[in-house]
Amino acid sequence: MPFNQYLFGSQWRVAVCITSFDRIDCALILQEIIKFNWPNKWYIVHATSSKNYDGYLEDVLILREQKKLTCGALDLLVSSIQAAKNNIPGGVDYIVHLEADTWIGNQSVVNKYLNILANKPDSIIAASSWSYDQVPMLLSDPFLRRQLRGLILRKLRALGFACGVGDRNSISTQFFIAKATPDFIDLVACIEANDDDFLEKLVYEKIVEKYGKTSIIPMAEREPVHPAYRYACDALSLATHHWPSSNEHSASYPGKKEWLIKQKFVSLGPHMERLLRESDLAYYNKGASRV
């Protein structure tokens, strides 16, 4: 599709920046979700460090060298958003970052936060934190004192107090929506990380340092992220894991096959059809860890 057709149905120029390492089947289906089922036609920029990938539906493909987890994730993120700025004629207004195994079914979720960002001049990014709920951990603790603290926190939360949540000062880098300003892209590009760093905290700290806390639009639907919404969040039509089917794990959230069925997509691409059809899913993200 020619570049100039992507403005149809949307008042903004948007690039969905997908990053992938070895979960390529996830990346293929994510592209089919976006291209075949999202009403507004947006660009896809895909940065991957896979050694066995030569492109699919993306408008811009960036091939990167493989690096260790944190450094590799940052390298792919930087490469994708820089390509959205430099490789798309005329640039874009907004960036939606999705890791390959992080799927959004309903584009209106993104449109909601685009509208909030557009109407709040001092904002720069919309994202959940990478927080965790302390209450379940405390309630299951063997020490009575910690159990009591968990009960008190649960009561206070029921009364409307925001408490009992750890790692609030962080940003989920697996899914966020940001204004594609040159200074934001440069800010992310200048982040330096080691493999034992907490990337979600690094990004948060840099954003707050430059723009302030009010520049972050929280995605309250997913708070706190862990454990309830780590792998799925229905309010955001979000699936954020790599299990191809519920038959391969014992958790309460649906596998990718079951999630696709639930979404009732009108248009199915060949990779979506294969996942729904196959009973033997050994092919899916072959070689990637299931853990």
| Series of secondary-structure elements, N-terminal to C-terminal | EHEEHEEHEEHHEEHHEEEHH
Secondary-structure-derived class: alpha/beta
Tell me the count of domains: 2
Q: Which range best describes the helical content: under 10%, 10-25%, 25-40%, 40-55%, 55-70% or over 70%?
A: 25-40%
Structure commentary:
The chain is an alpha/beta fold and 291 residues long. It has nine helices and twelve strands. The chain has a seven-stranded mixed β-sheet, sandwiched between helices.
Which short descriptors sum up this protein?
single chain; three-stranded antiparallel β-sheet; 291 residues; seven-stranded mixed β-sheet; alpha/beta; 9 helices; Spore Coat Polysaccharide Biosynthesis Protein SpsA, Chain A; globular; 2 domains
Quickly describe the structure.
The chain has nine helices and twelve strands. Helix 2 packs antiparallel against helix 6. It is about 35% helix and about 15% strand.
Topology:
Elements: E1 14-20, H1 24-37, E2 43-48, E3 60-63, H2 69-86, E4 94-99, E5 102-104, H3 107-118, E6 125-127, E7 132-133, H4 134-139, H5 144-158, E8 165-166, E9 175-179, H6 182-189, H7 199-211, E10 216-218, E11 232-233, E12 238-240, H8 256-263, H9 270-277
